[in-house]
Amino acid sequence: MNKQLRRAVIAGNWKMNCNTRETAALLEDLKPLVANAGCQVVVGVPFTDLSTALEHTAGSNIHVGAQNCHWAQSGAFTGEISAGMLTELGVEYVILGHSERRQYFGETDATVNQRLRAALDGGLKVILCVGELLQQREQGITGEIVAQQVKVALQGVSAQEMQKIIIAYEPVWAIGTGRTATADQANEVCGLIRSVVASLYDAHLAQGLTIQYGGSMNAKNCRELLSKEHVDGGLIGGASLKAADFATIVQAATEG
Ligand code: PEP
Question: Where are the alpha helices (DSSP H) in 90-221?
Fold first, then answer.
């Protein structure tokens, strides 16, 4: 299968930004700019903005995602949100395993796997984030680290369920730093992830899997990154908060 046959997905990770008023305004600005997108468009918004985002994207081609979910369906987990709570609202996607969750909130490969399992059981589609630290890249162990993250996160996930998974390769040293991986570095690791998935499932499934790059992707560097064979879209932080920049990235993905 060649790249053109895979579903390109551009997803925004708004992180802890935008109150409900700002959410409504940003989505109203964005809607007309991406109305003719030839790729899928997702916005990952804070929990408190989900209802507003769903309201302001209704009837549009923008899909709404959350930025985390817990592994239990309910219970004594103060401050957490379950997958079922998200699907009940009408949320379609969840971002899991983001490096900021791993770095600041003790997320591990095992808890990412638990959350991912719960997300699938709850009816969500998942954007699974993986990526190496700068030190790991410098040690030459990027491939090992990323392969391990993918393998553990996907434990217990069937081939059929893989249709609901997108993997985002996000080198930690490139997130929010303005330091982007070169297009060749991004392509190399996205290709490696594809081969890991092929070894876990089969080559056909891996060829159909959407693999995004994330890490300081912006309106200027997106075309080169998105032109690469194994880069099927982007997970966008900072640039997703500016409608025009995000729309430029969507347009670049549309053109391939
Ligand atoms: C992210 O948060 O997933 C991300 C890629 O952020 P940024 O684009 O700001 O580097």
Answer: 99-104, 109-121, 134-138, 142-153, 183-200, 203-208
56 is catalytic: no
Q: Nearest 5°: CA angle at 154, between 141 and 4?
A: 85
Q: Could you read off the pLDDT of 170-188 as tens digits, one per residue?
A: 999 999 888 888 999 999 9
**Helix (H, G, I), strand (E, B), or coil: what is residue 5?**
helix
Q: Counting atoms of ligand 1 from 1, which one is nearest the CA of 216?
A: 10
**Residue pair 247/13 in contact by the 8 Å Cβ criterion:** no
**Alpha carbon distances (Å) from 210 to 10, 28, 81, 131, 246:** 10, 27, 26, 16, 19
State CA 22 to chain mean position distance.
Answer: 22
- State the pairing for strand pair 9-13/165-169: unpaired
Can you tell me the distance from the alpha carbon of 173 to that of 243, in angstroms, rounded to the nearest whole number?
25
Q: Which helix (H) or strand (E) holds 10?
A: strand 9-13
Atom index in ligand 1 nearest the CA of residue 236 equals 8
Active-site entry in 70, 98, 100, 230: 98
**64 closest CA partner among 78, 77, 49:** 49
Q: What is the pLDDT of residues 182-214, one digit of tens each?
A: 999 999 999 999 999 999 999 999 999 999 999
